[in-house]
Every structure is written in structure tokens, then in C-alpha cells.
Amino acid sequence: MGTPITRDQLLQLRLAHHFPGRDGQTPPGPPGPAGVVDRMLAVQAQDFGQALWAVGSRVRGSTRHEVLAVLDSAEVVRSAPVRGTLHFVRPADLRWMLGLTAERMIKSASRRLAELDLDQRTLHRARDVAGEALAGGMALSRDEFLETLDGSGISTSGQRGYHIIWYLAQTQLVCWGPSDGSQQALVLLDEWAPGNGAPPDRDEALRRFVLRYFTGHGPARLQDFTWWSKLTLADAKVGLAQARSELEEYVYDGASYWALPEVTEPDPLTEGGLLLAGYDEYILGYQDRAPSLPPEYASRIQLAKNGVFKPSLLLDGRAVGTWRRNPRDNTADTAPFAESAISGTEVFDGAIAAYARFLADKRTPEKPRKLNRTRDW
After folding, report:
1. I need a labelling partner for 235 at 20 to 30 A (CA). Which of 176, 316, 324, 360 fits?
2. What's residue 21's pLDDT?
């Protein structure tokens, strides 16, 4: 049985995994924004602008330019390796993750694909069109890509275009690669980020999946991992059995939580309030969010009508309000929960200043490797 911990201790440990101190015993990896994605394994990224801040907020003094640079250098790509939802992920991890998740995701989407009249013949035709259109280093915006499909006789009306792109990403043909204005362009995965070596066998892939999730999200329950990854509980147990010797077990509220050993001190930047991005892994990365997001406040952040997760204020590991970008000066307007007993918002001044610095860097990212496009970069 593991070490009993209180809620405060759980949140302290969780902050240490999301925002590790400089002496944290994390596995070796790249520095900066790419290192954040490497440690987290995957960072939810369907809201592109918020996802950039989700990464940048975990790198002291970072800028939006620096996060965009790791996309333009193919150090990080965007695809849908978990829950069928867009995430930032390292190319070296994407293929083995999809090898474990894609088949189940495609099967779960089969009814919706049928409703959209996207049968295998149509999807295979779309794959051929995409492969030809993007071959040789082509990079197309979403609109350009959909126009290409329409021009080839494959209708993208309604939600068909979205689901075609999703399917092509699940089958490892395309990914979102270089930055393209406020979004990213579509590229061929094997051209933009070529594979490196043979994929791990299934047991090793399951071990990596479990270990890497708890590296960036611990302490968490195995049920949190299965919700996040959408792997079966049986597969999760196999992965945990393989990784257990590399993890520390804690017990909170009668349940086992798993984390990296010796990662106990968060970065000092967490001592003040934090501005979490919308869909931030600190909130969204768990099935049970009650320790950090009290149920009475959940509807303030998670909007049930459309599934949106609003940016949140974090203090001592707990969500205590929401915030939004002030378009006049690129700072943040905070809205603490009235019941949260925050005496003032000064505790968030440092985080607001960091966010303003993050957005203030207006330099144009360096051009990525040469791409043939219909327009100049």
C-alpha cells in the first residue's frame, strides 16, 4: 500500500509534476517548449491559441514566438492521438500512441462516419487525394485542403471535411505542422516528421503510455489515465505492471495515485496565482477533477452546453476563478469566484505580467524548412 497523503499534499505533488522545480528528478529531455510537451506526453490543443499558452505557461519567461518555433521545426506536431481530440505531441511519440488508440477511435466513430456517408471507398479516395496534394513538401491550410477535396469530387460540406481530416490523422497520413497565421498547415506526417526506428512492441508501448502520463500528470489514478487515453482498463493494467517499479504510489481518499518518485517541489512560479489556459491539462487531464476543481465551481469552467473549458485562475493548486484576454493590451481580466474568499487579485499580478510578455513578442517565426505552397510564408 502506498503513502497516505492529504488533499493539500496531492495538489502540491500535482503542481510539481505540471510545473516541476529546477531540481525535479524528471527524465532527461529537450529544454523549453518541446520539453514541456515531452514531459506531458500530449497537451490538449483544439484551441490553438490557448494551447500555445498551455505550453508557454510552463516555461519561465517564454514567448509565443518560441512555442511557434518548435512547431515550425517539427519538434512538436498536432494530431489526435488520445480521445480523438487534437493534442500537441512529439513526433517520436505520435506513431506508437496512434498504434494503440486509433483502431478503437475509428471504431467508436463509425456510426458518425456512416451518418456523413463517409464509407471506406470515400475515405480511401480522400487518402489518395491528400497524398497526391501534399506530396513533395506541400503544406495546405485547412481551407486550401478542403478546396482540394471538393475539387476532386469529395464533398466536405457539413462536418464531412472535419471528419475526413480526423480520419487521415488517425491513419497517420497527415498532421498539423508548420504555423500558418493563427493556425497550422496540414502536411504529410512521414515527410514533415519522418519516423525514426522500429516502433516498440505492444507491452513496451503500454509501459511508455502509462509512465509518461504519470510523469506529466501525477499523482493520478489509473482510472484517470484510462479516461485520458481511452485505452481499456486491461491494457492500462498491463502498462502499470510494466512501469510500476518506476513510480511512487500514494493513497488519497482510499484510492491509489501514481507519480514519479522524488518529484515533490513545484517551480517557485507556482507560489503566486497562475493563469491556466483553456482546456489546460491541469484541469482537463483527469476523470476526477474534484481535488483541484471543487464540484460547486465546475460549471463555471466547464460549459456543459458546448464542452468548452474556460481559462481558469489557479491558487495553491485549486481553481478559484476564470480569466480572459484583454484585447486592448493583451493582459488578462480576472474573475475570481465570489465564494473563493480571495481578498484581491494582486496575487495574480505576476502571472498576468508573464502572459503579457508571452504575447508581446511579435517577431515573425523563422521560416520552417522549405515548403512548396500556393502562397509565400
Report:
1. 176
2. 83
